[in-house]
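Weekly structure sync - notes
Attendees: PM, LS, DV (DV joined late)
Agenda: review two folding runs queued last week.

Item 1: First target. Sequence and structure tokens pasted below for the record.
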Amino acid sequence: MADTSSYHLAAQHLLVPGHGVAGIPHLDAFLPEVPQIERRRWPSANTDAVAGWGHKPTARRARAIAARKGLPYIALEDGFLRSIGLGEAGVPPLSMVVDDIGIYYDARSPSRIETLLEDGRWKTPELLARAEKAMQNIAEYGLSKTNAAPRLDHHALQAAKKRRVLVVDQTHGDESITGGLADTERFAKMLEVARRDEPDAEIIVRRHPAVAAGLKKGCIPEEALSGVTLLDSEARATDILAQVDAVYCVTSLMGFEALMLGKPVRCFGMPFYAGWGATRDEVRCKRRTAKRSIQEIFAAAYILYSRYVDPISGAPTTLEATIERLHDWRRVADSNTGHFAAIGFTPWKRAAVRNMLAGPRSSVRFHRSVRSAEKDARACDMGKILIWSGKEDAEKRAQLGRSSVPVWRMEDGFLRSRGLGSDFHLPASVVIDDRGMYFDRHSSSRLEMILESLSIPPELTERAARLRAELVAAGVSKYNVGGAANIDAPDGKRVIVVVGQVEDDRSIERGTADINTNLGLLKAVRADYPDAHIVYKPHPDVETGNRAGKIPVAECSAIADKIVDGANIDACIAACDSLATMTSLAGFEALMRGKTVLTYGGPFYAGWGLTEDRLTFDRRSRKLTLDALVAGTLIVYPRYIHPPTRLPCTPEEIAAWLSVDAPAPGHKRLRWLRALWASISGARPVRY
């Protein structure tokens, strides 16, 4: 479902002459009603409209072509919920406004949003209720146009002792200032009025961080700033607004964000939200005669005027979906904040690691030794060591244990790829753990903490149930390789699938006790269930010869009733009554499919009352439902990257991607070509 704009362009052949605008990802989805977008320098014989970037200087050529040819000019601009990072950094927009009359920040002439607000016939109770809910979510999530800024440092402002008034400065040359019927001098006047009308208040001047750094010039003169509290650091607008009682602005979007939080706003210019009775205005616009509520202004601006595109599917989407996307993305960006000194990552994995850790305030540097990584982490703000858990041998573990630098560990996630890691298929998900690692039964992990203590609301449990149903219906597993399983079970016999593993894997080293080999597991299951029909399923990495753990056929056949080579694990689970494992993820996949799971080691899903366990788990005292386990394991704990776009995404989107186009078995030469390509491509992390 996508939002339907209150207006449609009549253009059939829209010329977009600027390289920057023409190169915006998913431009066609932002303009679905236009059959032909002409990405060229000059109009064709069929061109019937011209588009450019708002009323900015970069649009002069597009506007000149439109004027010379007598064609309509269509102004495109970033929407009010744009992205995490900045457009100046090359981050593509999730929202856009399309204006066939003017542009929202230029009150010198009418615009489509002004026409909408003046008319008002679009109002319905349902639309306004939708606007109110969206405003609540934006406020709760602390979202803005861009969302790279950190939380407000508690040292930035002292505890309030009296009324606080925020005065919002803007950067010199901001097009919205002149477009908003103001000028640079208006800012000094605004500060003067704030001092005069609020003599007992603390006046806080919010300057753009680039102004404080000397990279840009502000509009409030330096000599006018004596006696005020300067707030120059990067911080979320909602955090700043929560600390003040009133807001003075010229045309900044922060004024409307203040209105959404219930703050009184005094405008010294004419932004799109002024002139409708929701603000106290020092400037008048005779065209604006209607009285509009904040909900009505929001509905017009964010729902009817703005358009949204889903960055994963590339299709038009809704305001609500964009709000949730930005909320999810900022959680990822926040968790990625800081510098990562990474060790244990082979060259072919590094591009994927950069994307998993991408963010506007993150950086990654790869090292060969703990000593080098520790030195790097100490030298950087919020530095930490990140190690690929499979490379953490006893020596490295001892070195890391002696370090005072925070240590995080990374490992493949549970919905990994369309092929084996040992065949150099990059992961679509990873887990990053700042406490331990989920497969290490000897110490606590972030996943164990989530499952033991997280309050899981009903909506998250319901989401987990839907995700589980999708995964089971699509037959999705960790690697998604293999074919049908021929079990050949006699009637009436209990069928137990015994899942083999890579024997030198870290999950075997850290997650098992007395039974720690595939042969040992097979013998233990036969001893415990002498009358069962036992089917042995080797690990696909072992089958291909890439990893250790092969049982000689004669030994295996003497214990197991059947060996299934090349079978898909989902097919094996479907054909069995029970699944036996040391620590394999297949046990979790079997639980999701309603099978009995017998654990002979300490996997993350054991000890919660859902499995039959040989070992005991003293730290795991909670009894979980299956969907609570799924919620913590597949939704809360991992991180996901959509391989085609390299963007952060949801487990549902990865499930959809994994459910189609599984790769055919590749030649060994293709395997190494895949590794080479992964090593040399994607050096720059994705920007969002």
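Item 2: Second target, run right after the first with the same settings.
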Amino acid sequence: MQKVKGLGIPQGYTLTEGTSYAVAQVSATAALIISEYTERTGNKPSVNKVLKYLEKGSSDIGKPGRDNYFGEGKVNAYSSLMMINK
């Protein structure tokens, strides 16, 4: 897992990891999926459809396929959006 810079108090910036750092990326990708899907179809996608695009568009990391550490893998906005355009 790649570490990201986070703010630690009082020590300043530190390299750390965790699922909360992924929230911004996943939320932004979900928003892009909703926007692109709505523009292409004229309808808003269901929650399950957004989840499908997030999961199927992810880049597999770690053990092949879904696993308990990385789940479906690393969010890949480009791949998820390209699935809508098929």
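Discussion on item 2: DSSP finds three helices and two strands in the chain.
Action: LS to circulate a short write-up before next sync.
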